[in-house]
Amino acid sequence: MQLHLSSWPEVEEYLAKSKAILIPIGSTEQHGPNGLLGTDCIAPETIAKRAGEEAGFLVGPTFNVGQAQHHMAFTGTITLRPSTMIAAMVDWAQSLAHHGFERLYWLNGHGGNIHTINAAFSEIYHASSFDGVDSNRAPVRCTLRNWWELPGVMDICKQLFPVGEGHHATPSEVSVTYFAYPEAQKRVTMEPKIAPFGPIRDAKDYRRRFPDGRIGSDPSQASPEAGEKIVAAAVKAVISEFKQFVEA
Ligand code: NI
After folding, report:
1. How do 20-25 and 103-108 pair as beta strands?
2. What H or E segment, with its residue span, contains residue 158?
3. How far is the CA of 12 from the centre of ligand 1 (A)?
């Protein structure tokens, strides 16, 4: 069940039996020569949508722009200031809390978002204390999970791509998007076959070190078939974790 494809009476009905929602969160940023700009939102969204359908829980609209400053030397990338992202996440959480949601499970698709998401959680929890509510219990409880860290997922990725998984624009994440949108596949010859590794600094330095946007990866190996296997493992893990989070 997806919030943006539901009517208000349907959401009201859902709230009568569950106060929990899963929100995919990602980034709109370059993902190398054959990766989609939406990779980091499409991956958590695809996993969340399937998990929600299978287990009957509500999936929120995808928070689809995040911390992508270091990708700004590549066309099409969109980024938020950390303060903007925190403010927007707080407003999303407070809107949902206003309607009665108490558990927000954020399924993240982008490593660069992690610090800012955790800062947003602090901001969300502070709001309840500073509102004069005499309690340390926040009206909403949040949790963050990076999809690639879900139990069982990395094992499958390593099995599928023992060479050239790398750090950015990985064959695993590109496979997940090709599974979701097979019509968006791009066949590109990678030069060099495996991209260099190195540190992430500012946007200009990133482009100089990693001219086509990849870090350490060979995403020409990506396929919808591989993506399907990764998604299946992730869906299973999300369902189990979401249920635990709801009951905790
Ligand atoms: Ni990514």
Report:
1. parallel
2. helix 153-160
3. 34
* CA 40 – ligand 1 centroid, Å: 5
Ligand 1 centroid–CA 109 distance in Å is 7
CA of 206 to the centre of ligand 1 (A): 15
What are 216's strand-pairing partners? Answer: none
Check residue 104 and report its DSSP letter: E
H or E, element range at 244 = helix 224-247
Whether pTM exceeds 0.85: yes
CATH architecture of 3-247: 3-Layer(aba) Sandwich (3.40)
Residues, Cβ < 5 Å to ion ligand 1: 39-40, 173
Kindly give the confidence (pLDDT) of every residue in the chain, 248 residues in length, as a single tens digit, with 9 standing for 90 and above. 999 999 999 999 999 999 999 999 999 999 999 999 999 999 999 999 999 999 999 999 999 999 999 999 999 999 999 999 999 999 999 999 999 999 999 999 999 999 999 999 999 988 777 776 655 555 789 999 999 999 999 999 999 999 999 999 999 999 999 999 999 999 999 999 999 999 999 999 999 999 999 999 999 999 999 999 999 999 999 999 999 999 98
Annotate 163-177 with DSSP letters as a single string.
Answer: SS--SBS-HHHHHHH
So where are the chain's domains?
Answer: 3-247
CB of 204 within 8 A of CB of 73? yes
For tokens 């200009």, the residue is 204
Q: How many angstroms separate the CA atoms of 31 and 184, rounded?
A: 13
**Backbone phi, then psi, for 24, in 5-degree steps?**
-70, 140
